[in-house]
Amino acid sequence: MSTPSRSEATGDDPVYDLAADCTIEDVEEGACYRATVNGVVEYGVFVDLSASVSGLVHESNLDGSYDVGDELTVRLVDVRENGDLGFESIDAADRETVQIDHEPDITATDDLAERIGESITVEGELVQIKQTGGPTVFTLRDGVGIVPCAAFEAAGVRAYPGFELGDIVRVTGRVERREGALQLEVESLDAVDESDEIRERLDSALEEQATPHDVQPLVDWSALETMQDDLEAVATRLRRAVLENRPIRIRHHADGDGMCASIPVTLALERFIEEVHGDPSAARHLLKRLPSKAPYYEMEDVTRDLNFALGDRERHGQQLPLLVMLDNGSTEEDVPAYEALAQYDIPIVAVDHHHPDPDAVDGLLAEHVNPYLHGEDYRVTTGMLCVELARMIHPEITDELTHVPAVAGLTDRSEADAMTDYLALAREAGYDEDDLQAIGDALDYAAHWLRYSAGESLLTDVLGVDAADDSRHDDLVEFFAERAARDTDEQLDAAMPHVESATLDNGADLYRIDVERHAHRFTYPAPGKTTGAIHDRKVADSDGPVVTVGYGPDFAVLRSDGVRLDIPQMVEELEAETDGGVSGGGHLVVGSIKFVKGMREAVLDALETKMGAAEIDEELGSASVAGFED
Amino acid sequence: MSTPSRSEATGDDPVYDLAADCTIEDVEEGACYRATVNGVVEYGVFVDLSASVSGLVHESNLDGSYDVGDELTVRLVDVRENGDLGFESIDAADRETVQIDHEPDITATDDLAERIGESITVEGELVQIKQTGGPTVFTLRDGVGIVPCAAFEAAGVRAYPGFELGDIVRVTGRVERREGALQLEVESLDAVDESDEIRERLDSALEEQATPHDVQPLVDWSALETMQDDLEAVATRLRRAVLENRPIRIRHHADGDGMCASIPVTLALERFIEEVHGDPSAARHLLKRLPSKAPYYEMEDVTRDLNFALGDRERHGQQLPLLVMLDNGSTEEDVPAYEALAQYDIPIVAVDHHHPDPDAVDGLLAEHVNPYLHGEDYRVTTGMLCVELARMIHPEITDELTHVPAVAGLTDRSEADAMTDYLALAREAGYDEDDLQAIGDALDYAAHWLRYSAGESLLTDVLGVDAADDSRHDDLVEFFAERAARDTDEQLDAAMPHVESATLDNGADLYRIDVERHAHRFTYPAPGKTTGAIHDRKVADSDGPVVTVGYGPDFAVLRSDGVRLDIPQMVEELEAETDGGVSGGGHLVVGSIKFVKGMREAVLDALETKMGAAEIDEELGSASVAGFED
Amino acid sequence: MSTPSRSEATGDDPVYDLAADCTIEDVEEGACYRATVNGVVEYGVFVDLSASVSGLVHESNLDGSYDVGDELTVRLVDVRENGDLGFESIDAADRETVQIDHEPDITATDDLAERIGESITVEGELVQIKQTGGPTVFTLRDGVGIVPCAAFEAAGVRAYPGFELGDIVRVTGRVERREGALQLEVESLDAVDESDEIRERLDSALEEQATPHDVQPLVDWSALETMQDDLEAVATRLRRAVLENRPIRIRHHADGDGMCASIPVTLALERFIEEVHGDPSAARHLLKRLPSKAPYYEMEDVTRDLNFALGDRERHGQQLPLLVMLDNGSTEEDVPAYEALAQYDIPIVAVDHHHPDPDAVDGLLAEHVNPYLHGEDYRVTTGMLCVELARMIHPEITDELTHVPAVAGLTDRSEADAMTDYLALAREAGYDEDDLQAIGDALDYAAHWLRYSAGESLLTDVLGVDAADDSRHDDLVEFFAERAARDTDEQLDAAMPHVESATLDNGADLYRIDVERHAHRFTYPAPGKTTGAIHDRKVADSDGPVVTVGYGPDFAVLRSDGVRLDIPQMVEELEAETDGGVSGGGHLVVGSIKFVKGMREAVLDALETKMGAAEIDEELGSASVAGFED
């Protein structure tokens, strides 16, 4: 505790007895101190308050006479500009004596590099406590940075067991370089009295640092403007997680738009982490991007995510992560997984452009960005939103990303007006529309073969960000895009002869194909995308409304141009009518359903009847279908 | 070698020539030594036997006269209380001269912490020899602990290549702290002459330390008492493995009882390892728990286990592991896997409560605990047994485990009389029967989604052991149990309308369902458990005997209440009659069979005939079915 | 830069001003230098050119008089045998002054062990640049070895950012031992003027070191002789990769011959890596062996390989790898994968004995060894070739491998004349034909259960190389071989009753079996091998030509004895006739085809017609079928 300020030091002030290591920082004008005479001169006595705090009691302020070594009580009455201290002797009777420990200079964590080898003190919040086979490593965050503090009790024995995550502490130790990174070799680790005050200061510093950069959207578009605040809230959460040393786990849709969303955000976070932690390997421990095979957050995925998070907490003393859902996460199907995370109070943010169920998910999401919540729709793709998000996190990334929204738009068939501007922006970066389409196709193709692997380096090269070698990027995209086209042609060569056609009651053309029997399995394109490609060919050959159904033993994929299907409604009715274990989802013109194998015929027959009763609406196109094909 | 004791030093004793570093520890009253005069005084000469061993030859004991530097032979005749030595000069003629090396003080490995920076000597058995890119690390076990000893020959070059695992050695080196753990920086590593003696001493120390704690069973139950000795033998093996630095690999049934068995044993071993090795990370290298998807030890699993073990031996110089089978391992189906391990003399212990084939497995098992071997049955669940086993390994764990046997019993539907006591015990720990059932359901649900992952942290939280946060545990269990119930309801909603019924020849009700066609696939509950849930509903609605068959393309799951099936017998007959590639197993009332797809109808028809010919026995219930459902 | 040689030092030579640390190595007779007088004697003045370079200007060679400290210009006229230098003073007017830096002694990387603690200089090419959380580690290769050089700029900050992979540099630093391996603590890292010269020297040193050992083939066989040069070219590539610190990734066929090929090459490379890097753990970072499930390089595999390679480059600064295809890689089906690697200029070498498509692959392969390219055929198995290859890489391995070609021959049913010699060689090593066949069966069985895992240690023990414990090896082989036989019998017991027979139009016996319906799935043997075993039994029972077709929902495996099938041709025709999505490949007597499920009947019917129209050729046997069974 520091000496109270003068305003309080009136009347029967206590007498402070300074520890030997106290400095001038620990004294306050007007306060009373225990002093020892160390010199007697004609005009008074010199007194010591501590090893380094001394001054004069002028004879005019002195009661009685003293010899060297005598103790007396003084009040500090004068601090001159040159640092000399002037005291008066006072009567200590009836005064309480208070021990004062030296209040050390607090060093900011970003000044440690210049203090190597010195013993210094830092103050802040414990954000990680990792027990190693040797020391216990306390990671401390002050307002400006993060530093690991190694405390050795005995091999593998927890040092300072009374402290836990979130505590505000003061650590004194020697600044050392270990594996090149800076750390403190702990000499003492103590609780801080003014922890509320410090926490408040840390919080406000954190808040300030977490505030995202104020970036102008890449294109002038009202849709982006309406979501700017929502995106800033997400950017703040993400920056805050980095500053708090909290791990971030990104789950994203494993398609083109999902890649255009997640890769920029991952890159921006990597760079921000490196900036904050000064350690290029920190991102490996703090950031993980994982594709989801399903278009929602499956129970299997969340169970594993949870188990990993708990394991990292136990083994490395990490905080539980912040979960980020990209191009996924807005629907009722995500609820069970979200509820599982809620058991551990793991916060979740979602940026998605699929039709949301805000009633179902909003109670479980810390932030939820979705164009439908603002009267917009899927045409604002998640990739478009996430490029803005990435720029808010780390604006320097902008130049690498200017073509990404256009890729996202093309791969998700966005018919947004802003596509014109995005395409122009991409053109400035050297990409014409065919190039961008090829990037989208290549992303999709590479992601297919990478399956559950995130494919960091390869996909970054395909997308053409993170300073990729340009010629390599071009060749790679061309190669993958060509392979994708060739494999799609081969698949359709096998499938097209087996597409059956019929006319629905409403006059629309229906095309049906058993993709399990008439398409190659376990290859590119998968059943959903195969169905989409067949539909596109049929639409191109037709004038009227077209519906395509690609089915397997226990699933069907639906695509419509010109028929208003309302698939969620259909699913509900089909289940009620058939008891076929029907579930699924989608939009007006695209969707997928599942059922039990044995009820396939019943379900498909009922589905056909329903589609025949649906309203014709020639305006409706099956755009933005990519998200539902897998 | 030390100087022989006095009793042997008579007649023509040898003359010992002490090495320069010998100390007073190396001499023995009555023995003869080569000495050098280092001082001549009035009353005799002072002689040196080594740098630190000196004394007086009184003139009364001295033949002839000597100058400084002269050599003579002396006998040690007097060791005074103050440490002064008195000699007499003797005639060395015809005496053999024996070189004596300094016999160093042996430091116990648990005293190293106080000797940091000193050069000391330890003695014991080499239990691991790991070649790193730098030094060779010899791990030495003495009677009380384990210490790594780093010997540097050249980068990556094996030091002391003459030594191998199991050798008894003496290592002299400096005690250093490395990554916080203690190790010796080897100065010398030598064979020990008295290795048999030391090995005997180590063995008896090991035996003593390996002896499990003498714990009173949690409940007073004769079934446990009869198996107490068997469990102690397993506990001894496990403790011994830890003390010998031998890795332990646990394979267990991936169901509720398997979790209730394996998690307590894993926790107890983790704590015992930490106690022995003083290193919280040691358990990561020495202990691995793995769920088995099949209800036996598959060839695929054992091939991988073996390959990992051989790899760890090669890369880390580890011993081959001890394999522990829990809630699995008693049956003939485990034999091929056991035989694979036998090729490498890997010992196996099994604790199981499934119907055993002792003739098939006992020759391959080092220990085999199974209630059937003592006239008991499946009602003594593996979880009940393993809680006792865990307590024998590390009794301090008891308080965390008192509710676990009740969970194990409920999840395996044990109708043991002791369930009353177990439930009472759980009640004392704050769990009523619904809570325990919910924990079982939650374990099962979480294990389903974790698939091949052990799910350490998550399942430990679900089971509510290892100091889990109570409120979190409760919420988590409730959440998972509810999800399990909801998913089961959804599955049955799809399936129940497609259950076909018939009456068997013996009058029992037969229910059949194609779970591949009329249940959702790749979800919870899986086909076996789905069949079980259907059966339970049918039994609840019926008075008479009920048999349920859930079948897929190449498998069927059987459940009976009131019909005595003898499934192993049926399998044998079905294969003989149909050539359908029929295999499988089970009990009287529960089992599963496999066959080739093309013979399904023939096999199922024949099965139905056999079930119709089976004896009705209203007493028989399909309890403990959990183990066979997957 | 060093002082130019004398031949250039005529007329208006420049005056060299030596840096203080220059040594006698930096001066050249006849060249001119700036000097300082440090002593005046009767017969002349002593001058300093640098701290350590001094000499006499004899009065006879001296113009004018000088005091200590005076500067003058001198020419070095005399270097005596004893090292004394003689100078003449000259007129410096109009001469250009050139600064000369000290040209340090260059230490060879294989001399570092004797220089620990000293500051030395090495020169060579940067072959890896890894940014750690601490220093930047530059790995330097000179003509004789490789050394890591750690340069610290700031924690995690790239030191010497101007340098990149492939640059020729000079590094001065202290030799340190870190984790036991040697490294330089960088004091300076500079570009080298004579980099072309050095690169040339490095290249020729590399070329020399990369040259494989000149080994005599194990048996006297013209087939091996014709391929000797090709194999040497591959050996050179592999040794060169090790010397250049380039990672090597081996993809091989996951059958017996593939194991006999890849295990010896892997072992030889491991030992060569250890020799070059002096670090037994280096092979873990530089060498990876991976089985391929398909008989060609699948797009899924290459996508992962590529992503790993890019990740290792990014994270560890590694070069992109050299890809090695063994017992795979010669066919058109490998082209897409090869093209993917070509995007990154990753070199590929293939050693295969399957029928090659040189037109398709040769443009993509750096080296291609295949007996068909030399008028030989599959009877020269890849295992036979790779044993020679392994010996070229590291001849000391020979004794461990003498039985391997015979195993390879038996497992691939090679009828080569050289088999007699190979069997004799194996007999000398203690293996009779039954033993070798058992090893082949055991390899196949173990590989089946290991699936995607390389199974290093286990398969090395089965194959009996790398100093395996002999008794263990024998028992292990016997055990696995017996299990393989037993499992095959069980599979055939189920399958044989369901084999249908017919007579083809050409009179050959046709056997058909639905292996999906009438064989166990997910067990050993898999469908292809099951079909082969059935075929073998049928051939044994028959005199005439026999064709066997094992089919599943979307595939068929073909085997013929006595009918010339030309399977690639059939595949092309089947696809043209049926639109069944037919693809596949094979030889005259063995092959496999895929089709879409729904066209199975049409494809199989057409296939039967074609087989009935094929030519009978009693000489044709379905040997070497192993490679196509999976």
TrEMBL record, chains A, B, C:
PROSITE patterns for the chain: S1
CDD domains: RecJ_OBF2_like (cd04487), S1_RecJ_like (cd04473)
InterPro entries, per the entry: DDH_dom (IPR001667), DHH_sf (IPR038763), NA-bd_OB-fold (IPR012340), NA-bd_OB_tRNA (IPR004365), S1_domain (IPR003029)
Cited SUPFAM superfamilies: DHH phosphoesterases, Nucleic acid-binding proteins
Domain S1 motif: residue ranges: 30-95
Domain of life: Archaea
Bilayer-spanning residue ranges: none
Molecular function terms, GO-annotated: nucleic acid binding
Gene3D superfamilies: 3.90.1640.30, Nucleic acid-binding proteins
Pfam families, sorted: DHH, S1, tRNA_anti-codon
Coiled-coil parts of chain: none
Protein's name in the database: S1 motif domain-containing protein
Taxonomic source organism: Halococcus thailandensis JCM 13552
